[in-house]
Amino acid sequence: MRIALCDDEPKTAEGLNSMIENAFKSLDILIDVFTDGNELLHRFAQKSYDIVFLDIEMPAIDGLTVARKLRDISAEVFIVFLTSHMEYAIKGYEVNALRYLTKPPVKEKVCEIIEHVRKKQAEEKTLWVKTGDGEYKLKLSDIIYIEALNQKMMIHTLSGNYEIWGKLSDYEDKLGGEGFFRIHRSFLVSLSTVSGIKGQYIKVAGGDELPVGRTKEKEFRAALVAFADKEAF
């Protein structure tokens, strides 16, 4: 889980940082601390976060403005406002804020928020990938297929493509139990996106047609039937 803390008062941000680290020592949590909203926005454009704890009253750029800009980048990030004045709470609906915390934040409330996000993430499986211009969290349900391109791969999704380094076999192992099947030496496909079979080719969401290796055809059809049966229940 990736968490950003943004508060122009370093003492508040560092205190929250220590609180989270001490409460979740056994979890793989990465925390970045910012004292300026513009810094956070610049970093977020390169590397997104799961949760942003955001001070509302900051001098350079206020938290509500930062939150609106974050929403322009991501509809999924969980935004938690930190404030000493709860009259700002109504504004949170404009940016779909998860919650407001009064300063100084109470440990139990912070833990409730992180556990809530963990539960939500468990319900929606995701994959982190690293490209040449940053790191991205992709929903497995958005991935159509992964294509091998020499030493690189192209991940084709419903919202765009992501070029990454790696071997297709690594992702075959990682996603094999998540409804993905390697139909060819160059293609790993999400079975949920298959919309038709035409001879030695399949059609997937978005309209692409991909070849099925001759040695893979029988196994692929069996996997597709098994997947369809499983989804029916």
Please outline what is shown here.
33% of the residues lie in helices and 33% in strands. By secondary structure, the chain is of the alpha/beta class.
Uncertain parts: none
CATH topology of the largest domain: Rossmann fold
Strand order of the largest sheet: 2-1-3-4-5
N-to-C SSE string, H for helix and E for strand: EHEHEHEEHEEEEEHEEEEEH
CATH architectural group of the largest domain: 3-Layer(aba) Sandwich
Topology, number of strands: 15
What fraction, in percent, of the residue positions are helical? 25-40%
Query: What's the CATH H-level superfamily name of the largest domain?
Result: Response regulator
Q: What share of the residues does DSSP label as strand, in percent?
A: 25-35%
Count of alpha and pi helical runs: 6
Q: Name the average pLDDT.
A: 88
Structural class by SSE content: alpha/beta
Features of the shown structure:
alpha/beta; five-stranded antiparallel β-sheet; Rossmann fold; single chain; OB fold (Dihydrolipoamide Acetyltransferase, E2P); 233 residues; five-stranded parallel β-sheet; 6 helices
Give structural notes.
- The strands form four sheets. The chain has a five-stranded parallel beta sheet with strand order 2-1-3-4-5, with helices on both faces. Strands 10-9-8-12-11 form a five-stranded antiparallel beta sheet. It has a three-stranded antiparallel beta sheet with strand order 13-14-15, with no helix packed on it.
- Helix 2 (37-46) runs parallel beside helix 3 (63-73).
- The protein folds into two domains: 2-123, Rossmann fold; 126-232, OB fold (Dihydrolipoamide Acetyltransferase, E2P).
- It is built from six helices and 15 strands.
- Strand 9 (152-157) and strand 10 (160-165) form a beta hairpin.
- It is of the alpha/beta class.
